[in-house]
Amino acid sequence: MSDALRKAEAAVTEAQTDTVAVQLALAAVELAKAATAQQQAPAPPACGHQQRHGRTVGEWMTIACAVCVGGVGIAFASIAIAIGGLSVAVLALVLRSVWRDFQKSR
User: 3-class secondary structure for the chain?
Assistant: First the structure.
């Protein structure tokens, strides 16, 4: 039986060394993964601030609405200026006519 005991001890020792070898191999694979992840990480910008890649749809919609509202405001302002100019012209014609009638009656 001592022969069987020696064989069992040898098998246990071999299993322990195989387990250590497997653990070392797994550790090496994990280190390789970590090194690959560090190499693939993008470098931060040299100037220290983040760059924007473009506007979102919401930002473009907000800009479009602001431009539309501004355009309508400018249109109404132009109409108001035109009406004001027309009123001044009519007033000038009426006052001129009144002045002429006043000059004739003297």
Answer: CHHHHHHHHHHHHHHHHHHHHHHHHHHHHHHHHHHHHHHHCCCCCCCCCCCCCCCCHHHHHHHHHHHHHHHHHHHHHHHHHHHHHHHHHHHHHHHHHHHHHHHHHC
Alpha-carbon distance of 63 to 71, in angstroms, equals 12
* pLDDT single digits (tens) 5-58: 666 666 666 766 666 766 666 677 677 777 776 666 566 666 767 766 788 889
Whether 45 contacts 51, CB under 8 Å: yes
In Å, what is the CA distance from 71 to each residue of 48, 63, 64, 77?
39, 12, 10, 10
**For residue 73, which phi and psi values (nearest 5 degrees)?**
-65, -40
- Cα radius of gyration rounded to whole Å, the chain: 46
Q: What is the pTM of this model?
A: 0.44
Unique residue bearing structure tokens 């924007």: 52
